[in-house]
Amino acid sequence: MSSHPVIELTSPSSWAMVEDKFSPFALETLAKLIKFQTEEVWPALRVAHAQLPDDQSRWKTVIPIIRDLKARARELGLWNLFLSKSHYPQHGVDLTNLEYAVMAEILGRGGHFASEVVNCSAPDTGNMEVLARYGSPEQQKKWLIPLLNGEIRSAFAMTERFIASSDATNIRTSIRQEGNEIVINGHKWWISGAGDPRCALHLVLGKSDPNSSDKYRQQSMVIVPANTPGVKIIRPMKVFGYDDAPEGHCEIIYDNVRVPLSNLILGWGKGFEIIQGRLGPGRIHHCMRSIGAAQNALDLMLARVTDPAKKTFGKYLYEHGTVVADIAKSRAEIESSRLLVYSAAAQIDKYKAKGALKEIGIAKFVVPSMALEVVDRAMQSFGAEGVSQDQSLAQTWAGLRTLRFADGPDAVHIQQIGQRELKRAPEVVKRLDAIKKKETGLFEKYQVKAHF
Amino acid sequence: MSSHPVIELTSPSSWAMVEDKFSPFALETLAKLIKFQTEEVWPALRVAHAQLPDDQSRWKTVIPIIRDLKARARELGLWNLFLSKSHYPQHGVDLTNLEYAVMAEILGRGGHFASEVVNCSAPDTGNMEVLARYGSPEQQKKWLIPLLNGEIRSAFAMTERFIASSDATNIRTSIRQEGNEIVINGHKWWISGAGDPRCALHLVLGKSDPNSSDKYRQQSMVIVPANTPGVKIIRPMKVFGYDDAPEGHCEIIYDNVRVPLSNLILGWGKGFEIIQGRLGPGRIHHCMRSIGAAQNALDLMLARVTDPAKKTFGKYLYEHGTVVADIAKSRAEIESSRLLVYSAAAQIDKYKAKGALKEIGIAKFVVPSMALEVVDRAMQSFGAEGVSQDQSLAQTWAGLRTLRFADGPDAVHIQQIGQRELKRAPEVVKRLDAIKKKETGLFEKYQVKAHF
Amino acid sequence: MSSHPVIELTSPSSWAMVEDKFSPFALETLAKLIKFQTEEVWPALRVAHAQLPDDQSRWKTVIPIIRDLKARARELGLWNLFLSKSHYPQHGVDLTNLEYAVMAEILGRGGHFASEVVNCSAPDTGNMEVLARYGSPEQQKKWLIPLLNGEIRSAFAMTERFIASSDATNIRTSIRQEGNEIVINGHKWWISGAGDPRCALHLVLGKSDPNSSDKYRQQSMVIVPANTPGVKIIRPMKVFGYDDAPEGHCEIIYDNVRVPLSNLILGWGKGFEIIQGRLGPGRIHHCMRSIGAAQNALDLMLARVTDPAKKTFGKYLYEHGTVVADIAKSRAEIESSRLLVYSAAAQIDKYKAKGALKEIGIAKFVVPSMALEVVDRAMQSFGAEGVSQDQSLAQTWAGLRTLRFADGPDAVHIQQIGQRELKRAPEVVKRLDAIKKKETGLFEKYQVKAHF
Amino acid sequence: MSSHPVIELTSPSSWAMVEDKFSPFALETLAKLIKFQTEEVWPALRVAHAQLPDDQSRWKTVIPIIRDLKARARELGLWNLFLSKSHYPQHGVDLTNLEYAVMAEILGRGGHFASEVVNCSAPDTGNMEVLARYGSPEQQKKWLIPLLNGEIRSAFAMTERFIASSDATNIRTSIRQEGNEIVINGHKWWISGAGDPRCALHLVLGKSDPNSSDKYRQQSMVIVPANTPGVKIIRPMKVFGYDDAPEGHCEIIYDNVRVPLSNLILGWGKGFEIIQGRLGPGRIHHCMRSIGAAQNALDLMLARVTDPAKKTFGKYLYEHGTVVADIAKSRAEIESSRLLVYSAAAQIDKYKAKGALKEIGIAKFVVPSMALEVVDRAMQSFGAEGVSQDQSLAQTWAGLRTLRFADGPDAVHIQQIGQRELKRAPEVVKRLDAIKKKETGLFEKYQVKAHF
């Protein structure tokens, strides 16, 4: 069997399917990433949490050990791995989406900080994609380069309070031109990353032409420097009891915020086009990180159920009830989900995100539920400790839970996939009719009648 | 997007993952197989059933249209596709397990006859593998060649009545040497294929050395010509209400059956080794055919729920309730199962069946349950017609149901996968300990204490 | 604990909930029924199947042992127990729906024949209800009395081929007056009981006024003597290969069938009203019989997994895998379903079927799926034998499967219950608003502000 | 239909089953409780949270509005409703367990504070039961009376860190006599209520005779005044980020804690007996509160999915995807769970907790999972808001999640129920054998042979 470190780490059954598709550079980068994460990042995670103060000053903190690890990652060349050169020739790294998918799983095992240290964390990743694809040279110089360098961070301001913003046409934030300036008024929430002291810009979506007959041309997107007057951060939203400081998910009021006209991205009425273009690969990243979280939970569960200190009634935990079956199911579910996402990534590599909508959509609704289930089983094996601050499982679960509605609730994706599948119906009916017709001929030819 | 006929047939998302692994010969064979099945085999299926009499003479029938299609298939070179040349250089076809897996799904759409017409149906496939791998030249000449030519058929006699034969050490059939002969006595049931008038041989497993201290050396396997005196076919077992004539699943008593010593396969005490070697690829074939059955059921469902004649309360069936969601789930489940089996096939291609036990085991317990679920949803969309003789769904479901215990019940495979996964625990614990140790160093280095 | 035989038979946890609601007569009848079923009926079931010929004459057979048991049941006073005196004062038995529900479970354990021997089998039960409630005195004398006496049997002809007849407005059968006669033309299928040689009448639903603006007044129901010229039984429909002879589920063409005007039930345009009135209690009976089937399957599973002859790898089946957990879940699911149906029966007793629509609807979609699951687990514990003719489980499963669409598919009931629950929304909103208003007052009173 | 307020509040289908079992006093108390909760308690809940400081002083706070509501509840006679007079003649209230079960559901809708204001909140309830059943007159005077009066609160200290304390024989805390004193040393965690400034006593379980051959006689239980020197509260444990102040779930070290000998409850070696006796009704209370939480979540979901402000793509949320089906399922699952717990309560009323172990065990593993599922569906309908501090759902979910291991993990209860059910096997086998024997006789009598 292959001896790549990824085998030692998780022994993924799927490796035989993708190994041949890896370039030597990707194989080497993956190995280096695994070494860096296991030896330097994962031992740093609890330290990072400890460096985050317990009081309000947490929102002003740049965590020292994270800062040090970022420098180290850059030194190692483990940086911006998400940006595929084939899609972003100028700024990208020489990795396919499939190759990065395997790496994103590794990152997902360590939680949010593990992605941040290699400059591969949301929402910066999606924002860099937007600026790299749609930004003007000036915008790229001012915002994209520092983001690519990890010098600043960013927020993506789309979701709004008081409305159902999973339907982008419901957006109420107003974006209008006044002379050489753009004026923004709106009330957003769940703006991830906006709490971070390093957050330098918000990409804000709003309506610039609310009366346009084409409802997909009503929106525009604008770069708002975070320190612009009128940008009022109201409060961090909590996810279950977690505030995810220092980044946070903020409620923000944009109160007569003024930015220069040059901060408009791509042009008036292009907002919807931009958010559509932003979605594909990011969903794959989320999915692979979720799979990493699930795999990590399964590993923790393996350790727990074989822990002699946790024996009850004279037996190891794994000797009780349905634990072995739960482990088998978890393994199978992780493996099949992994393959689904690989398949979507391979599809993107071949046909771009637009040619991979079905594959991305399936992964989007299958993976978070799967990961929640696996993490939940692991929590159960830990008993009360599993839901507490002494283990990462509960916070991981809470984060995964948001993925069942972030970027559109499960139901939306399920309906879209179902509708897309229904489009195959006419072709199927045509085939069945052709079969029926030939069948009739054969009944005649062989001179036989169907049994009732 | 690629234009291979497999895309038109099912538009499998997974194609992007495997396309590159196909040889030009395999691509062409797959296309030819699809054309043959859709244009010649599927229109013949109901005719075949009609040619099978309604009374006891059904057990003596060679169905004319099946016989004709076999000739046609051989002519087209669509023959023995299951036997991979890399494992069986002498008799095999130039296809990998992965390539054949994709083809086996196509075969599975048409039910049992669709496999038979290309000489790829169980139990003949497994029996040919046994004879090709373990048979003496003489045995191969006498039995393997006619089987490869589709001139005769065969049965595999392992399962016994009155005991739990999923544990092969429970086997009671006695196989003993008497002079130059082997004498067999035993009571088997669920012997598939034994009812067929073309069935020429049984591979019979029994105990030749029941007192051996090595319980995996107690068994031997013997070739029993079907017409040997003492071979008494008692009755066909039914699966739900189906008897699967003419092949059937028979109850058989071997009553002082005598065969020449040369009919022993591989040697005394080699029975367990032979049945182990027989299992791997066959399980993959079953799985892929099950996926084909599921995909076919989904297609039938698509046709049904868009049928204007089946509208209720003014709406198409797909506009009601959870139909669209059910279709989306079915699609996702089929896709992820397909990838699991591809992954197992790729693993076999790389590391032989022995190096793919985990992958095969996962597929074995995941796929049949998935397929049952998908077919059940399709049945529900057809209402009462779905469980009747007017549709193939109920019989398909019943056949799939047996796969949850054939070759070992789900529970056995689930336990094995779980136990196998538990073997990773020491490695995981070692890694967690290493992380903990480094973490302690980092807490010291950064002079910080964990929050409680 | 109570010592009633029902405790010994299944030890239903729910007994403590319903015991107090039983009259002394009901307690005694229940005990007598249990004794009769366990000692006389269940030992007769395989004999009855054996008395049914294997060829086409099966459709002309009155099974001797069933006939004898019917006489015996009548003698014991175990007869027509389904017909509650409170709803049918003239013909009914002094049992509430709840009391009969407990008995129907007992009947369900023995399959269809077990109900027939106490004259409590569908479709006769529903037909007797129709005639008792809506029949003219003449109709009652001619048809109801012999049915109540078990001298004849009957069929209910509603479902039609080629349309989606779960929407009764799709019905195409034509019923029109011609002089003193009614003329019926139509194509029905799945007409249970019509195959029985004792079947003397069909209650036929058709459209008498297809152009009526009130689509619930277009239908009428007519009594058609089974031997009327033009009643053509085409074939028995099969359910998973089973034909359920001698009753069968027949395809029937009514070809210019003529009956006297006096055979119209209740009046022109009353067909929909009649079928609505027929549904409530019958659904409860189906549910309770399904629960009996599930409980019986669980019992068989208990016997199987503790059978020393079925040990594998040195352990009882129950010591493997998730068997104990499966048993616990089955027990819990049976128990909660039982309570749901009891609750619906109690609701009918208090508020008639019309006041129990929600309870009946919930039971209708919950119970069959539950029972299928429990029987499926039991089948799995039996391995191949479980799906064969040697055990009752597969046929039981197949019968239960039809209940997921008989009397309306699950989806229809689920939607109705959901919609009915949504009607509570305005009341809920009103309450939440009232709470909010008071809350505002309390914030002021206590001079405190909400944390964000 | 009945017009009791409970019908207006939740229209529980199960009401028809239990109404007759309510005394006039219970009916009136239930109505009064509903009025009090809806009009006074539920509007106060967010105020109570607002009165709890955001910093460490939260652990020293007696919330004013809760204090006021407690006075009001006592005035209304809504007090100690959990303590059934039939089990506790001296201190109890004239309510059966079934009657209180219905009330506990109402309490569960408002979360923890809603139970506290009527002095029915854990762990005080279980502790009062212990003192009422096992306490000496002196202990009752000193601790039980103030608890019954709601003047003090209490903690139950059983669970230990570093071991698997779901197996009570693993307990390590040492309790030994030294002269007239008892000395306690141990390390506990998850001690609910210990953080509260009003907490006056801990009931501490430890080992007094660790070498006893009877492992159920090794434990003793001691009353420890909360302010005893050596009682060191280390930290509050968090549940999904929530600390549940002011009560909290504390980690506590008992470091050479000394109490008088008279603080021993019931006698040396009686600890296990006491904790066993404490469990039954408390589990029912938890279950009913969970059902209340689920019902409340369903109500919130009904309001959300019909909210015109949350329309997407021109349709109400309930018009999308599977929302209606989800609501129907939630309703059905709540209803069947409710009935399961009622059934357990009725069983306790008839046969005490010891005679209701199966019913309690089933409820214990069925209800929390059900409630989690229902609350999760409601969260999903709220999108991100559902997991945030603006709705109660996430905190409710987190609390419910702990019930899958509190008082023993699901797996333990599932195994116990399964094993208990297996005890029916010999009886079943005996019955099946008797049937078989009679069957053989009938085959002879009727001179018929079974079909194969």
From TrEMBL, chains A, B, C, D:
Query: Could you tell me the Gene Ontology terms of the biological process aspect for this record?
Result: fatty acid beta-oxidation using acyl-CoA dehydrogenase
User: Cell division: present as a keyword of the record?
Assistant: no
For this UniProt entry, the molecular function terms from Gene Ontology, in alphabetical order, are:
acyl-CoA dehydrogenase activity; flavin adenine dinucleotide binding
Looking up Pfam families in the UniProt record yields: Acyl-CoA_dh_1, Acyl-CoA_dh_M, Acyl-CoA_dh_N
Looking at the record, the residues that make up the Acyl-CoA oxidase/dehydrogenase middle domain are 155-257
Q: Which residues form the Acyl-CoA dehydrogenase/oxidase C-terminal domain?
A: 269-420
Q: InterPro entries given for it?
A: Acyl-CoA_dehydrogenase, Acyl-CoA_Oxase/DH_mid-dom, Acyl-CoA_Oxase/DH_mid-dom_sf, AcylCo_DH-like_C, AcylCo_DH/oxidase_C, AcylCoA_DH/ox_N, AcylCoA_DH/ox_N_sf, AcylCoA_DH/oxidase_NM_dom_sf
Spell out the GO cellular component terms annotated for this protein, sorted alphabetically and separated by semicolons.
Answer: cytoplasm
The record's keywords, sorted A to Z, are:
FAD, Flavoprotein, Oxidoreductase
Acyl-CoA dehydrogenase/oxidase N-terminal domain residues: 62-151
Cofactor requirements of the protein: FAD
Q: Which family does it belong to?
A: Belongs to the acyl-CoA dehydrogenase family.
Q: How does it assemble?
A: Homodimer.
Q: What is the recorded name of this protein?
A: Acyl-CoA dehydrogenase NM domain-like protein
